[in-house]
Amino acid sequence: MELLQRVLFTLVGAASVCYFVIKVALGHWKRRGILHEKPKKPWGHLKGVGRKRHVAEVLQTLYDKYKGQAPFIGFFALLKPMLLILDLDSINYILLKDAKYFMDRGLYYNIQDDVLSQNQLQMDGIEWQHMHLKLKSLQWQEKLQNLLPALLKVQQTFENSLKDKIPKTVAAQNVTELVEGFNIDCISSLAFGLEGDSLRYRNTQFHHMCKSYTKSNFNIYKAYLAFWFPSLARLFQYHVYSPMATQYFQKLIAEKLTEREYQRTQSSHFDFLQLWCDSRKISQRNQMYKKLENQEIVGQAFSFILAGLESTTTTLSCCLYELALQPDIQHRARSEIRAVLAKHQSKLTEDALNDLVYLKQILNETLRKHSPYPFLLRLTTKEYELPNSIFMLQEGNHLIIPTSAIHHDAAFYARPDKFDPEHFHSKNVQQRPPCAFLPYGMGPRACMAQHYVQQQMLVCLVTLLQCYSFTPCAETIIPLTYDNSKVLRKPKKDIWLSMQKT
Ligand code: HEM
Description:
The protein has 19 helices and nine strands. β1 (72-77) and β2 form a beta hairpin. By secondary structure, it is α+β, with helices and mostly antiparallel strands. The site of protoporphyrin IX containing FE has 23 residues, from α13. Protoporphyrin IX containing FE binds next to α13. It is found in: Endoplasmic reticulum membrane; Microsome membrane.
């Protein structure tokens, strides 16, 4: 009896302490007099997220309710207080004009114990700056046009395999798998120096590692705790990525670097790996260039998988889905592709890609409607007073910019729920503030690969739409639903369509 009483007292005591901690934590914005929606204990504003709702839906509801009332409102990711920025002028200051106050994203990384986390998406502070300077000195943005031949080599393999695998009509094709194969081939070839042909050989080790690089016991709650208490997580050597994947990518890069450094005098083709590799030779001759260490190259190459694989696969598969549902738009895109190829002697040159105006409108409309990255994150690194307001952002404040909600705002897009490439007709683009479309973010921490990735996706769409038409089939899920358990917004199930040779 006495034991039972003790257990009961302990339980009641523990529950009271938890209740008190939660109540104090969720009172954070109330105590500071910041406008906010009443949070639910203990979820904050994330009740149902992961199961019934995607985080993008929560942000959309709050944005629709509070925009115009204040430049930002208080938000709770479970117990973590954050600020949800609602006003486009403030967003412009945060991302661009006064970006020096918001250079961090505040994600967890651990360079010593988790090598793959040494990538520009996760890193912050001095580590991010150090790498940013090294990459900048390579002038790779200026050299982007030189990458096109390497990309077209992957495209040629893809096209040949398509002809063999899908000679005529396929009643139901998993297009998510199809475009994912192309994207993996681009990554393996341009970033890891490993040629691939995913349409023919899917079960390669590289393919497997691209799909399963997190630890097998990866737990979203542990990751959340690492986000809350990064220094503690570093102390306990918490790592996100599987040792097997880490070793695999390290070994692969080491082998390929040796191959490129010693077996080839001058590179015959130019790709990302060659660019990183050349940094070593150039840095010996010119102090301005900073040598990239092996581990740093591993982190750079891995960022193509981490930041680029699901985002490109989602964008391309959602794009084909929308085109299948709207044959008129698909027909117009195909006519444009054929006219542009005819004008450029069937060659996909830089100029030819630039001429694909309507296809780019379609890509942008896909990024607007399906926004794979539904929000941006920033961490305030110095106290900052928002212009035209009395609000002071404090050092350590985490900010969320709800890009997907902005992309669905009827004030900027005439028919936000409809897939309509006319939203990106030049005359409509001119009438919108630049911050109304942020699929790649903006400012010094914007997507590093923005221009390259657009080329990669255009090349894939040209290859597919030139030869095939896409229509819905019995397996096509209409309307499309999203996977609520992921932070990136991606369809819940793979997209299946019927493909007919044109
Ligand atoms: C459709 C494809 C893609 C989309 C929509 C996309 C979008 C984004 C967004 C929204 C961010 C955050 C920007 C910000 O915080 O302001 C980002 C960052 C980043 N992306 Fe992409 N991305 C795509 C593909 C790629 C690819 C293929 C790579 C390959 C390297 C890549 C590399 C990065 C890196 C390294 C960062 C972090 C940059 C930094 O903080 O310095 N992304 N991307």
